[in-house]
TrEMBL record:
It is found in: Membrane. Its main location: membrane. Coiled coil: none annotated. This is Solute carrier family 22 member 9-like. It is a multi-pass membrane protein. One of its GO terms (cellular component) is membrane. The chain crosses the membrane at residues 143-162, 174-198, 230-254. Keywords: Membrane, Transmembrane, Transmembrane helix. Pfam families: MFS_1. PANTHER family: SOLUTE CARRIER FAMILY 22 MEMBER. It comes from the Eukaryota. GO terms for molecular function: transmembrane transporter activity.
Length: 313
């Protein structure tokens, strides 16, 4: 007899499936924010070069006269092709003559510029701090931001291979249990990473554990008859969307990337604790394939009552 036929006979949407689905949908809500977290923690704010006359707190008002911030910016930062302050270069010396120019003249000698050797000044209207501002991942180093995302995706790819193999070998409940805590640990350590290299390494490990966690989530579809598969699939997608909504709301409240990373990690830790103390971890509700045999033997009387027999091979 096929597995789906057995489910149809003993009940394809009973208490066991409902409890399993509820727990795994919560798991999906908890894990989803980790997959989109870097869209917020690695956001690139507006930035420009740090300049002495404009950003040095020790410069007195008499040094700059009565010039406004816009005037000081004009004499310190060149304009890019869009006539906006350049994000990656500054004038070697303040260009005072630019205060008296109302237009662009072809006979004016191009002033000397240099890279942002003293760092950058970042806008804080949207995010107070991101990984970009933490390690100055702008201009020549902007590609490193893509490297961090690439490393995270590589972790997910490796997790795909490991998750399937380990789940088949050791069972899904054990893998889910063992993956939740390392994901929370790597997330916490990533928020406290002292260097960008360590951050990328932890980011890789987090991506690995996240995808391993996703494997048991799909078991909720396997334990559901075709009659309810569409409903369960829709609920899983709704849980993912709700996780994205939660992530957006938290990003609005916590605008420092360290705090946001720790909050998301704390949610994962609470989920791990809930999983450990809940009744879903015992033999009657575990997610391993071995639980199928427990269910089978417990309902064998019902199957005999319906005149059904399992062919032994």
């Amino acid at each position: 007899m096929a597995f789906q036929d057995l489910l149809n006979q003993v009940g394809s949407m009973g208490r066991y499936q409902i409890l399993q689905m509820a727990f795994l949908l919560i798991c999906n809500v908890m894990v989803t924010p980790h997959t989109v977290l870097e869209n917020f923690t690695a956001a690139i704010p507006g930035h420009r070069c740090w300049v002495h006359i404009l950003d040095n707190d020790t410069v007195s008002d008499s040094d700059s006269g009565t010039l406004s911030q816009d005037d000081l910016l004009r004499i310190s930062i060149p304009l890019d092709s869009n006539l906006r302050p350049d994000k990656c270069r500054r004038f070697v010396q303040p260009q005072w003559h630019l205060l008296h120019l109302n237009g662009t003249f072809s006979n004016v000698t191009e002033p000397d510029t240099e890279p942002c050797v003293d760092g950058w000044v970042y806008e804080q209207s949207t995010f107070l701090s991101t990984t970009v501002t933490e390690w100055d991942l702008v201009c020549g180093s902007q590609v490193l931001g893509s490297v961090a995302k690439f490393v995270f995706v590589i972790g997910i790819l490796v997790g795909n291979f490991l998750g399937g193999h380990l789940s088949d070998r050791f069972g899904r409940r054990l893998i889910l249990t063992c993956a939740l805590l390392p994901m929370a640990i790597t997330g916490t350590c990533a928020a406290l990473a002292p260097t960008f290299f360590i951050y990328c390494l932890l980011h890789f490990l987090k991506g690995l554990w996240i995808d391993i966690i996703h494997f048991p989530v799909f078991s909720v579809i396997e334990w559901t008859s075709p009659k309810f598969k569409a409903l369960v699939t829709i609920l899983m997608l709704c849980a993912t969307s709700f996780g994205n909504i939660v992530m957006t709301g938290l990003a609005f409240v916590f605008r420092n990337w360290h705090h946001l990373q720790l909050v998301i990690t704390c949610i994962s830790i609470s989920h791990y604790v809930f999983f450990q103390i809940s009744g879903l971890q015992n033999g009657h509700n575990n997610l391993e394939m071995n639980s199928f045999f427990q269910v089978y033997f417990s309902i064998s009387g019902k199957m005999t009552k319906h005149g059904m027999h399992i062919k032994e091979e």
